[in-house]
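Re: the 101-residue chain
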Amino acid sequence: MDQLLETKIINELKTVYDPEIPVNVYDLGLIYNLKENAGVLDVEMTLTAPGCPIADQILDEVRMKLESVPGIHQVNINLVFEPEWNQDMMSEEAKMDLGFL
């Protein structure tokens, strides 16, 4: 994927927040992999907990935001729980925002 498209995708992901945690899904470390091919974007992601009560809401928002990126016409989300998410996956900025640093 070219760098400009990747930047646009990441910028959109940074607008999606877990309502229970005031940090976006990208900086939380919930996005494991992004792969684009001919306008089809495959997203491998997780949630902070497998039983997340708002999982559908978060996934729908990720899909909607990414489908708005010019050049992306289809988004496939693969929700995984391996490796299991933990606080070490957060960006330094997210750790600072949450008071972990």
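The two ends are 33 Å apart (CA to CA).
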